[in-house]
Amino acid sequence: MAKIPEVVPLPRDAQGRVDVLSWRPSFDRMDSPIMGRVLAAAQAADFTAYGPADVRAALARSRRTRDDLAALLSPAALPLLEEVAAAAQRETRNRFGTAIGLFTPLYVSNYCQNVCSYCGLSATNRISRVRLEPGGVAAELRAIAATGLEEILILTGESAKFAGPEYIAEVVRQAATYFRTVGIEVQPMNVADYRRVHEAGADFVSVYQETYDVAAYERYHPAGYKRHFGYRFEAQERALAARFRGVSFGALLGLADFRRDAYAAAVHAQEVQRAYPHAEIGFSVPRLRPILGGQAPLAERSGESSAAELPGFVVPASDVHERELLQVMCAYRLFLPSAGITISTRERAEFRDGVLGLVATKASAGVSTAVGEHAAELADDPTGDEQFEIADERDVAQMCAAIRARGLQPVMTDHVRLEA
Ligand code: SF4
User: Model's pTM, two decimal places?
Assistant: First the structure.
């Protein structure tokens, strides 16, 4: 008779919840020293220790240290934001010229098995859930390709049941027939699954740690596989081990101390760049947006948008206003000058236009964060509710016009796909 394998129980905390630093036996481990180094560096950073002289010294250097990064993220840098932004713009022009890459995200499934208290797709939220099947995916891809875009980012909620590696690889295979560059923003996967998706045609992996503050991470992720902090942390390394061309980093600014989270994301990216020098590194700078249903994660409201204006949406509080967001983007640019920085449609059009060419090198256009909203032929099908509320609804033509109006050049792709 076959022997039933022994089930090893996962370690649990006093409330019976899975230990946030535990690993499931099915998870690949990179056994990399990077996580320990990033968390130690983030914990040691003291953002109150810097003054204007430290910020100006950081601006004057051509290669900036982690100490410089902390100075640039410190409160002392905020009053000097114009000087900081001018230095960041010089770096952007030196590395990227006037090019601004354009892409659009395509949400193909909004099923999610995780509980994240800041997200509209959280498993506990009663929303309309949809997964596109191949015909629907093709209709969406055709509609987006018709706008002239050549880069796409495939997104799903994190659900092994509804959007596992096989489904994601199939969507990527379809996407690669329409687009020259395909990125994925899906659940963290093991190396073999990343390899399968890469071989189907995906080039880039985006995984955001949300917060590098382990205690806050534990609070915001009470259930689901996402609760395993370390497995998420090592996702970029697994993707690069599976031969992806590039990976993106980011923290959801506003969940915890945003300076420390931004510092940790930058150090994480630097560590991965050192370990994988060939990798293209990118940053996204999401901050909390109003979500459908859900709970507000922080006690206070930001005041930037009013829940009353957005019926059904909860506006989580945040101390990350546009000046702070710009400060973080400038710090990323000055610390890792070659990293791409994407500005999301979570931000309003005027702010996005202002940071294009200054620090941001990539922007999304023609965005819907709901499932199945691009193709007119799907108009009668049920659409899945959106992940969050967007602030910039401009289409591709309008974004191209806005980019050109700033003396910049919209770029649909900088990549030629070679057929095997
Ligand atoms: S943030 Fe991601 S993992 Fe969490 S509920 Fe939303 S879609 Fe799911």
Answer: 0.91
